[in-house]
Write a structure and sequence with these properties.
With about 80 residues, the protein is of the alpha/beta class. It is built from 2 helices and 3 strands; from the N terminus they run βαβαβ. Helices cover about 35% and strands about 25% of the residues.
Length: about 80
């Protein structure tokens, strides 16, 4: 069974109004894990602009994936990088 670490990010609280909010991302992650039969080890949430080169929660998420041999899971590619 594949283990996952979820990384959820919003730039502002207003993003929730456009379907990019934390709850929408959480639901997408949940549906994917259910589909593939995986296991969620942890969920990391960050409120930070995608333009920022230093996102400490993202770095923590990646470090945990390496330690636990897990897969980093994001709801949408634009949550990981400003420009897809």
């Amino acid at each position: 069974m594949t283990s996952f670490v979820a990384y959820l990010r919003v730039s502002t609280d207003r993003q929730g109004a456009f379907g990019l909010g934390i709850e929408a991302q959480r639901e997408a992650v949940r549906r994917y894990i259910k589909t593939v039969g995986g296991h969620l080890l942890a969920e990391h949430v960050e409120v930070e602009t995608g333009r920022s080169a230093t996102r400490p929660i993202l770095l923590q998420s990646i470090a945990q994936c390496r330690r636990e041999k897990a897969v980093l899971l994001i709801a949408r590619l634009d949550r990981l990088a400003r420009s897809v």
